[in-house]
């Protein structure tokens, strides 16, 4: 069965998933054309390892405790850690690697250690609030070899990971001309994605991965544009009483159990909805 994995990055303040130059956008297919450069201005010693990008994945090797790469910009990133208090990245590799979030207001950094796996994994770290984020530095791998980075971001909320349990159905349309399009129908049971910690909104970043191997293929990356909150029949919650589980709802195929104070039009199991409502006895 194909693997499905999707995630939503919420309230994104900074995001790099191509690793290519940002200030001077380039269609240069050369893997050496990067938006990240030697961080010698930060550390002192020069980085002598390898950093390349195919426009999707950053391949990084040869970093040390005092050499690495820094996001290239003529100015600071310049966003508030109070408004964007999460560092989020997706990567794979071996051992550990360090990420410094340089703070331009206090001229120091908050350091995070990322423990990499052989398969891609999304990591989220909480930043100290009350600072201006100046730059990001990747360095200090603990094991020799090449580590892979899908993206790095600064967000206002922690990311949401969607599993196959969350997905009812979905389509991804990829075109050679025009814009790709994705549409997901989620299990919005009890308004899971409309209220509380899983809420997402217009402009959040959606990434979808599909595949049958160890590494699902990134089939879509874009923005959430439209939400249609619907309540399918088997998720109808307008009756304030909770629907009992199937074993209690229809014990031995009986259609009425006086101890539960429910009258059933028929044995509905878990699919009791608006078309076949539950009613209290009169």
- Tell me the strand percentage band: 35-45%
The share of residues in helices is under 10%
Q: What structural category arises from helix and sheet content?
A: mainly beta
Name the CATH superfamily classification of the largest domain.
Galactose-binding lectin
Order of helices and strands: EEEHEEEEEEEEEEEEEEEHEE
* Count of DSSP strands: 20
CATH topology of the largest domain: Jelly Rolls
- Compute the average pLDDT: 81
- Name of the CATH class of the largest domain: Mainly Beta
Q: How far apart, in Å, are the first and last alpha carbons?
A: 49 Å
Q: Radius of gyration over alpha carbons?
A: 24 Å
Number of domains: 3
Largest sheet: 6 strands, antiparallel
Q: State the low-pLDDT regions, or none.
A: 232-281
- CATH architecture level-2 label of the largest domain: Sandwich
- Give the CA-based shape: globular
**Helix count, DSSP H or I runs of 4 or more residues:** 2
Task: Using brief descriptors, characterize the structure shown.
2 helices, Jelly Rolls, disordered C terminus, 282 residues, mainly beta, 6-stranded antiparallel sheet, globular, 3 domains
Characterization of this structure:
This protein has 282 residues and is mostly beta strands. The chain folds into three domains: 11-157, Sandwich (Jelly Rolls), CATH 2.60.120.430; 161-223, no CATH class; 233-282, no CATH class. The chain is 3% helix and 39% strand. The protein has two helices and 20 strands. Strands 2, 4, 5, 8, 11 and 13 form a six-stranded antiparallel sheet that branches. Strands 3, 6, 7, 9, 10 and 12 form a six-stranded antiparallel sheet that branches. A hairpin with a 4-residue loop joins strand 19 (256-257) and strand 20 (262-263). The radius of gyration is 24 Å and the shape is globular. The chain starts with a strand and ends in a 19-residue tail after the last strand. The model is unreliable at 232-281 (pLDDT under 50).
């Amino acid at each position: 069965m194909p693997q499905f994995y999707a995630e939503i990055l919420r309230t994104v303040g900074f995001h790099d998933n191509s690793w290519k130059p940002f200030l001077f956008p380039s269609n240069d297919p050369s893997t050496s054309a990067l938006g990240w450069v030697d961080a010698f201005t930060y550390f002192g010693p020069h980085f002598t390892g390898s950093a390349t990008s195919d426009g999707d994945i950053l391949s990084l090797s040869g970093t040390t405790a005092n050499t690495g790469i820094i996001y290239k910009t003529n100015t600071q990133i310049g966003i508030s850690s109070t408004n964007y208090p999460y560092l989020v990245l997706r990567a794979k590799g071996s051992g550990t690697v360090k990420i410094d979030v340089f703070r331009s207001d206090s001229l120091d950094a908050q350091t995070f250690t990322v423990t990499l796996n052989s398969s891609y994994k999304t990591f989220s770290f909480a930043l100290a609030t009350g600072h201006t984020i100046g730059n990001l530095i990747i360095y200090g791998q603990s094991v020799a070899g090449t580590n892979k980075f899908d993206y790095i971001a600064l967000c206002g909320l922690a990311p949401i990971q969607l599993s196959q349990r969350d997905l009812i159905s979905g389509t991804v349309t990829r075109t050679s001309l025009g814009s790709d399009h994705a549409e997901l129908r989620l299990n919005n049971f009890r308004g899971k994605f409309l209220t509380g910690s899983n809420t997402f909104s217009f402009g959040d970043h959606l990434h979808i991965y599909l595949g049958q191997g160890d590494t699902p293929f990134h089939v879509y990356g874009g923005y959430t544009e439209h939400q249609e909150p619907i309540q399918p029949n088997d998720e109808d919650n307008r009756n304030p009483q909770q629907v009992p589980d199937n074993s209690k709802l229809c014990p031995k195929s009986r259609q009425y159990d006086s101890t539960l104070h429910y009258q059933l039009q028929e044995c509905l199991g878990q699919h009791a909805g608006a078309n076949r409502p539950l009613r209290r006895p009169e």
